[in-house]
Structures are given as structure tokens and as C-alpha cells.
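Subject: sequence -> C-alpha cells, single chain

Hey, anyone have a minute? Need the predicted structure for the following. Not urgent.
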Amino acid sequence: MNIGDVAKRSNLRAKTIRYYEDIGLVTPLRDTNDYRVFRDSDLHKLTFLARARALGFTIDDCRALLTLYADETRASSDVKEITNKHLKEIEAKIVDLQAMHATLSHLAKECAGDHRPDCPILQGLSGEDRNPSNETDTK
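Reply:
Had a minute. Here:
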């Protein structure tokens, strides 16, 4: 198969496939004209990589998972360890996203969204607090 065929079948762009080759995740054969020739095993690896990347695994995690996948003597605990680490990272991102959502929801509620220039969203983003009750009396 050529790179176009493999790209369609793996749902990856040709540029991504070339990158994966450059970093050693796949090693297609070369034809006499130096074109890449992909085997079924290459397609399988690329499909594996596409699925793993879609789930947010890093390139390093993908490399480790591919190595484990190829090792029939692997311990499933090694695979689970990588997955659990990734799950913790996802959970931390969820917490961060929830905090962002709460902040933006609050700012959006505070903004009248009318013709006036006063905008709590912009004030919040700039770190300004123009609430007079928060000002200290220096007299």
C-alpha cells in the first residue's frame, strides 16, 4: 500500500504518517523508486496509534503501548499503569476545565451585555476589581 491508501484506511493524514516514520513509530519498506510501501502490519500500527492519540495518549505513551502490544510476554499491569497515569492526567484537566467553566459562567452572569462599556468579563480577565465596596477609604 502507498501512503495515500494507508492514510485513508487509518484515518490519519499523510503528514502524520511521515512524522510517525521520522520518530520511529513505523518503518515502512521502500520501493526501488524510494516510495514508501506499507504492509498490513504498518497499517495495524497506524490504526493503533490513531486510536491511542484520539484518546489523548502522548507519543511516548504510544511508543510504550506499541512495545507492550508487540511483547507477548508483557504484563497487563504495565499497560494498566500507563492507562491509569493517563486517566489521572485527564481527571486533572477535567478539574481545570470545571474551574474555567465556573469562572466564565460567573463573569458572563455579571455582564449586562448591553450598550454600556462597563464589562465585568473584561475586568475579570484584566484582574481589575472595580467594585467600590472593595476599595479602602484612605481619608
